[in-house]
Amino acid sequence: MTSPDAKEAPLHAMSIDVEDYFHVAALSNVIRPEQWDSLPSRVEQNTELLLELFERHSVKATFFVLGWVAERFPQLVQKLASHGHEIASHGYSHQLIYNQSVETFREETLRSKDLLESIIGKEVCGYRAASYSITRESLWALDILSEAGFTWDSSIFPVRHDRYGIPDSPSAPYSIETESGSIIREFPLTTAHVMGLAIPAAGGGYFRQFPYAVFRYLFLNASGFGDRPQMFYLHPWEVDPDQPRYNNASWFSRFRHYTNLDKCYGRLEQLLQDFRFSTVSESYNAYEHDKTLVRSNQMIRLA
To answer: Which Pfam families does the annotation name (predicted)?
Structure first.
């Protein structure tokens, strides 16, 4: 291990967004939701590949399971829970929250939470939005999450992006007071600060597109070079280079989705050797932060 000594290294959060290759926003212009049931699913085999890897390295992770997946593969959710991993919600239909009505989001949020809880027989307290789509335009979703019984969220990315992000929102775990006065804990996605720039370093496409040495440096940078836990995420389809290819998608969408799929599994295994990981809840609880409280209406005013 080339990272700081394991006894002193922070306990980072390992999170997996359990969705299939055809659910992703990058391919939404060429694959419609009504087609999903007719397409060959690969989510079960890919998730089990990650499960085997985590077992080999004695790592527990948080699996944010899409309700659509849980409904069709309840045995997969049961297996993840039985192996001691944390189950959290990824919503139901993988639609961008700011494109949904309040009523639709509420219905899907409750549907997915109830489904997951009925499968594993315990309360589901964590949530992550599809494509990190809790933005300034959809902060109202936090009240619905709180009403539904969620106590923590990991949907806010403190970066500028064409699809998500609240720039200059806190980069360390914090608590949010919603418009209705509820409190929900937030574990934001990882960003490194280099020469005054906030650079995404949380995983996913950034993990695949950056050379591993660069990503490792950025992840270390974000952690204060070994002082603070950070959030890492990946999707099961990112370790599947044999998935169907949609060449009718735009070149940018293809770049986002297909770059270095063949290298991702090996990089992930190296990451597990270079850093310490556990579930989101364990990582958050181990974080010695200043209990920052941010009101959701303050977020709207953040630059």
So the answer is: DUF3473, Polysacc_deac_1
Task: Look at residues 91, 111, 107, 98 and name the one whose alpha carbon lies nearest to residue 153.
Answer: 91
Cα separation, 19 vs 184, whole angstroms = 25
Q: Which CATH superfamily is domain 11-301 in?
A: Glycoside hydrolase/deacetylase (3.20.20.370)
How far apart CA 76 and CA 183 sit, in angstroms, is 32
4 Cβ partners below 8 Å, 6+ apart? Answer: 225, 226
Listed in sequence order, the residues at least 6 apart from 294 whose beta carbon sits closer than 8 Å to its beta carbon are 169, 170, 174, 175, 176, 177
Kindly report whether the global pTM for this prediction surpasses the value 0.90.
Answer: yes
Rounded CA Rg of the chain: 18
9 class by beta-carbon count within 10 Å (0-12 exposed, 13-18 middle, 19+ buried): middle
Pairing of strands 11-18, 231-234: parallel
For residues 258 and 41, is the Cβ–Cβ distance under 8 A?
A: no
pLDDT tens digits, one per residue of 249-300: 999 999 999 999 999 999 999 999 999 999 999 999 887 655 677 888 777 6
Q: Concatenated DSSP letters for 239-279?
A: G-TTS---TTS-HHHHHHHHTTHHHHHHHHHHHHHHSEEE-
Please give the pLDDT value at position 4. 43
Q: What is the pLDDT of residues 19-46, one digit of tens each?
A: 999 999 999 999 999 999 999 999 999 9
Q: Decide if 239 contacts 268 (C-beta within 8 A).
A: yes
What local confidence, expressed as pLDDT, does residue 292 receive?
76
- Domain ranges across the chain: 11-301
Cross-strand bridge partners of residue 89: 65, 127
Encoded tokens for 30: 């060429």
